[in-house]
Amino acid sequence: MASLTDLKLPMNNLSGQLPAEISNLTSMKILLMGTNRLSGYPPDRICSGGLLERLSVHTNHFVGPIPKDLKNCSRLVRVRFEENQLIGNISEVFGVYPNLNYIDLSYNKFVGELLRNWGLSHKLTSFRISNNKIVGPIPAELAKATNLQILDLSANQLAGRIPKELGGLALLFTLELNDNKLLGSVPTELGFLSDLATLNLAANRLSGSIPGQLGQFSKLLYLNLSNNRFTGKIPFHIGRLGSLQNLDLSLNLLTGEIPSELGLLTSLENLNLSHNQLSGYIPTTFDEMLSLTTVDVSYNKLAGPLPSNKAFSRAPAEALEHNKGLCGNTTAIETCRTMVKKSKGKLSKKVLISIVAPLLATLILLFIIAATLFTRSRRAKNMIETREQEKEICFGIWGFDGKLMHECIIQATEDFNSKYCIGKGGSGSVYRAKLPTGQVVAVKKLHELDDDEVANLKSFSNEVNALTEVKHRNIVKLYGFCSHAKYSFLVYEYLEGGSLAKILKSEAKARELDWNKRIQVVKAVANALTYMHHECLPPVIHRDISSNNILLDSEYEAHVSDFGTARILNPDSSKSTSFAGTVGYFAPELAYGMEANEKCDVYSYGVLTLEIIMGKHPEDLLLSLSLPTSITTHRISLKDLLDHRLPPPIDQVAEEVVFTVKLAFSCLHTSPHARPTMRQVSHQLSARKPPLLDPLDMIKLAKLL
């Protein structure tokens, strides 16, 4: 056994202690024992032969110090000790590793200081040492590890200033220094980190103003500066962070008005400005922040009306309390009308009557005249119309006039001529219509319905009207609806990229949809479903998630379409099932007549995700996985399932793909209760991905199921 070079036993159910004889394996290059239930002390010597390159014992129950000979184990490339209870002074037990590219020491009990030697690991791309008891300053020499992409030193006891030299780490996309004891201001040099996606400096003792240079992070998704001592105004430059999804500036000493430029953060989902000294009105530009789902502006000096979007109208009272005079159409606070009445309480009733009475009389007179004219007009129209003529209901939103829209669409499509048809589905056909204004819309003409299929025209229009409140960046906008004796149709935003199904069927377009774009599609759909399931009241169940109903814009951003159509129709109708899903995406419980719920959407999402990764519908794979004797399928290499029109993913993209496939399988569980919620799916997709323990071509489906 002395000649053994590789020992890989990760993700099993191993328990007990490692045998002391493992120290005798002097030829060992790779030792992988992560994600088990191993306990006891790690062996005293693990690199006695000096050949060890990969060492992974993470996520176990090891205690005590790490092997002593690691300090001189110069060939190390990848090291993982996270999530154990290991102890030791990192100032003494680690050396210089010229080949090291990944090390994770997080969630242990290490003490000591960060030495300058870590900067000599020039190939290091990921350095994680969070949730330990590390003290002292952050060494400026750490910036010499110029290949660093992830630096996580959070939840320690680091003190001193943030080194300005960190601004030279040009490849850095994650910087987490939160929950320490750092002092001073934020170095303006951090503005040079153009690839940064995550910046977390929360829960320190940082002071001074927030530098405007932070507005240069064009790729930033997460910014948390909360629980510090920042003063001054919120820099308007933050409004330039077009990709930002989470912004937390709470628990500081910020003053002045909220800059209107923050309303340009159209991708923002979570905003926390609470526990500051902000004053003035909340900018009206916040009305356009349609992706915003949670907001907290409590404990400030804000006044005036709330923005008219869901995040504010549905905010709980504690998210708005302790301000100077906020008002709005929400049960959490007073309405603006009530507040105005209170502020004008000294106004004489006689003065009010003298003003209101003439106005009221004039309005009543105008109403009588209008009603008379309308009645005469209606009678004249009824005399002209034939007795058999049917009623129609049209309405529009987003600035569209329903009646005018109907006439324009009939003209633009030449009464739904087939030459304008761009797609067909189970519930209807989709047409491309160019309106006189030049705007292009997509019109879904529903299949002809029997009289009993529409339960009630009034409730039908009310239901569609309710669906217009569903506003999310990854959901296609519904512009309006029309129900007519001849046809009914829905008017949607037109997306030039077309459906995901058509893209995957095209050799050329499928190659353009590379792995990064596909992962973004998977995340976008998850975000849309999370919004529908967890942010809408009542929740919206899509019931027809498929590649035909995922549309892409010119930037390959995905949008869910045809949402909620099944909720519009009478569920007791004989044809209602045609509106409740697409064959191949149905959850198995629907075959037994169970009522559709949000877990049916989760199953369809799992099928869709596999389709995106494989480049085709996973019909054969789903069938084989459902059989009790699918051992052969379990032995299939994941690489063989990937879309061969693309080169195999590498590095972090490979980690994303593997994690995504594993998550998709969890959505396909036969038991609805065992499937994750879409909120859990979105959270996991946005979290950091575990590094691959094996090369991509060695990963079998059995490890992902």
Task: Describe what you observe in this structure.
The protein is an alpha/beta fold and 705 residues long. Helix content is 24%, strand content 20%. The protein is built from 16 helices and 36 strands. The protein has a 13-stranded parallel beta sheet with strand order 1-3-5-7-9-11-13-15-17-19-21-23-25, with no helix packed on it. A hairpin with a 5-residue loop joins strand 30 (428-434) and strand 31 (440-446). Helix 9 packs parallel to helix 15.
How many strands, what sense, and barrel or not for the largest sheet? Answer: 13 strands, parallel
**Multimeric organization:** single chain
Number of helical segments with 4 or more residues: 16
Shape: globular
Helix content: 10-25%
Q: Percent of residues in beta strands?
A: 15-25%
- Ends: how far apart? 32 Å
Uncertain residue segments: 343-352, 382-392, 395-399, 450-459, 568-579
Q: C-alpha Rg, in Å?
A: 30 Å
Strand order of the largest sheet: 1-3-5-7-9-11-13-15-17-19-21-23-25
> How many beta-strand segments?
36
Structural class: alpha/beta
Mean model confidence by pLDDT: 82
